[in-house]
Predict the 3D structure of the following.
Amino acid sequence: MSGDRLFLLKPGFEDPAEPGRFFVCPHCNAIEGLLASFSGLATQIDVQRLSFARPRTEIVEILGEQHQSLPVLVFDETKPVPDDAGVANGRRFFDQPERILRYLADRYTFPHIHR
């Protein structure tokens, strides 16, 4: 695999625990806003939007069953990977939304997020 891969929940998902209601993940939605604001970013990374239902096979195959919570950014390991990245199944990743946002700002050089 080459290139950073970003996994998000598809917006407008239905939770079986609350039939008839549709939801967005607030953490994924913040990242979706960043992707919409800087349209060139989505062409530089592989963005995959996954269903709410588990197992989320696409991410399980990479990081394992215990790392299905989204958002997750899996690194292109042909480029430098931050020291604070997590490791699962030999792959490096971030699963904290704020850290994903800061990484995207640093790596892809658009305006940084003001705290």
About this structure: Strands lie at 5-9, 13-14, 22-23, 46-50, 72-74, 86-88, 91-94. The chain has four helices and seven strands. Residues 16 and 39 are 32 Å apart (CA to CA).
